[in-house]
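User: Structure please.
Assistant: Input sequence and predicted structure:
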Amino acid sequence: MLRLLSRRILLANSSAIRTANYSKNCGRTNVAVVLSGCGVYDGSEIHEAVSVLSHLTRNDASPFVFAPRIDQMHIINHSNGDEDKSSKRNVLVESARISRGDVKPLSELVENYKNFDAVVFPGGFGVAKNLSDFAVNGPKCTVHPDVVSILENCHKSRIMLGFACIAPVLAARVLCNVTITLGKESPAEDWPHKGAIEAAKSMGAIIELKEVFEVSADRENNVFSTPAYMYNGKYHEIDDGIGNMIRLMLVTLRQS
């Protein structure tokens, strides 16, 4: 019975996916959300991704989820931090766990980016392992070609970009003279990722030191960012910061 019910839900979601319409409707705010898997250590940070989606719909925006159809860099056992070498996982397939099946290949966003008012990247190590190789090569990292295309084209077209947690390093690597936040440098027990700030600076980014609930707004480049889990914080603190970023983005969009 449970298997049959799951199958019916999957078929219903699949039908919705096939008929998805990116076209801008009068009064609707379309926002693309780019995921990098499912789970903080090898994919998207789940709480950040859900927070982004929740605050978008709460504020009357329509989210569309995208992910690259590639294998993850590796699989991490989230209960003990060990690498699981027994199998491979696909970034798009794993991202579907967060979006309840409704996820599209990132290549579709490359082709349809003009139908969106904004693009948001939640954090998680998947940003540094699957959307780029920042986890391995730091400031000399390579960013996935589809991500590069989306960032460059959105930037040229003045389509708003939002980043949480470690995701601003993508903007630092691809865009010139961009202002971002990756949180603060101290105290170390609260802000354990100072190295990312130094790496972003070396890539040419201008860094604003922000608290977890604050937002960096680079209005010249139309780039918004918030620290999220760069801070060793509580669930609601991360949610509050992401909510502040999403609301500021949407207010700015609707006033323009």
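The domain at 29-255 is CATH 3.40.50.880 (Rossmann fold).
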